[in-house]
Each structure stands twice: as C-alpha cells, then as structure tokens.
Amino acid sequence: VAQRLIAAPGTKEYGILSVVFQRFASVELLFKVSPNVFFPKPKVWSAVIKIDFSKGLGDRLRLTEYTKVVRAAFNNRRKVLRNSLKNCGYSHINFDNAPVDLLRRAEELSVEDFQLLTDFIYPRKDIL
To answer: Is the pLDDT of residue 111 over 60?
Structure first.
C-alpha cells in the first residue's frame, strides 16, 4: 500500500489510490520495517509513511468530481484516455480542446494533468 501511495506516473504501482491521495495529501515514505520485528513474523516488509492532509484542503469539495474522472480514466487501464472516458459516461463531452493529450493512458498522466482534466469536464462555477 505504501508503494502505491507514493507511486510516480508511468510505474506499475501508479493508480487510483496514488492519484487521489497525492492530489489531496503529501505522502512520504519514511522507512521500511523488517518482518523480524513482528511476532508472528509476516511474509512481507512493512513501511512507515507520513501523510500530510493540509495540501489541497481548499478543494475538498471537488473530491467527488476528481475521483469520478480518475476512476473513469483507470477503469479501462489499457485503453487510451479518450476511449476510457467515453466508455464511462463522458461520451456527451467534446474533448477536442481537452487540456491533456487523450491518446495517452491513465498511468501516464500526472496528478496535475488529472486536475486539469477534471476542471475541463466539470468547469468551476464562479460565485458572485
């Protein structure tokens, strides 16, 4: 889980958990813990991570929209974004002017790219 939380774009571990967590929190791997310090001894190494949720707290209300877009993008992981999004209920949106290249796959996009895509699909409404 720790590896998934800190995963970078383009890696096997990078997925929904990585993108959503890194958008709303800073995640840092502090150190690994040997199985030898536990009883009974597990078959895996553990990790201690630091999670700082102060990042992006102003946009917590956008969590629902952001998560929908990320889930739709990763729903068909091997498809390009255009096809993944169209297959997941966004077929009514004209993606011709999308801020990211929709011929890429979800695991290639950065957290910032997903935010741009979310803002494109769900434009912010200015409060007067």
So the answer is: yes
